[in-house]
Give the backbone structure.
Amino acid sequence: MAGTIYQVLALLPFEPPYMEAAGVACDFVGHPVVSERQANAEEIQEFKARHGIDGPLWMILPGSRRGEVQRLGADFTNVVQRVMAQRPGLSLVVPTTASVAPMVRQMTESWPVAPVILDPTGSDPETAKAEKRAAFGAADWALAASGTVSLELAAADTPMVIAYDVNPLSRFIISRMLTIDTLTLVNLVSETRAVPEFNGKRCRPELIAPAMLKVMEAPGAQRAAMELTMQRLGRDGEAPGLRAARAVLARMGSV
């Protein structure tokens, strides 16, 4: 990158030192997630009424790609069964994409209760986005595949457990390349380990389910880490787009 890129606009606060050490000008401008509108109380209540939800709501996010759902589906199903054996009064919601919605429906057939599946097929983009936003706001907790969804959950103040796995060959290679002990962005940005995560060989229902139950019982420490993450990503400051524009103009002025 150093030989071809003049300036990088970083979304994460820990990125500039790595870029600058390689000789690339880098400005942290904030993450777009902090500018995303969150559901208000009225939208959340309307969502719950629309789907007949009158108790605690648990969100399940097994991924947006077919390979992710295939790899994680059985383990997430097992976790749902284990958790609901202890918390039988939960309602479930599964936001998904049009491409994997059929797989999600098949995956959830054996769940103890039928989840609300948010399938955007046939909906206009704004309606689908509003429905997903309301679901994130309504959810009390989430089990999610690893990825930027952890930041979406943090923005919605939804405590979470993260789990992910890849094929055995990729797992073998990645395990020898990693120099960090967490892949969850909330943990990395907040410099905590408040979000439990179960990756690779640790992506096992017998480990995930107790952690999920513990988060359900005591989410307080995680909420503090999520708030810190949002602050460090630029919440309550200038919009990331505006900061990006200022950074570009500043660098142009120094040429």
Q: What stands out?
A: DSSP finds eleven helices and eight strands in the chain. The chain has a mean pLDDT of 93. Strands lie at 7-10, 25-28, 57-61, 91-95, 116-118, 141-145, 160-164, 197-199. The longest strand covers residues 57-61.
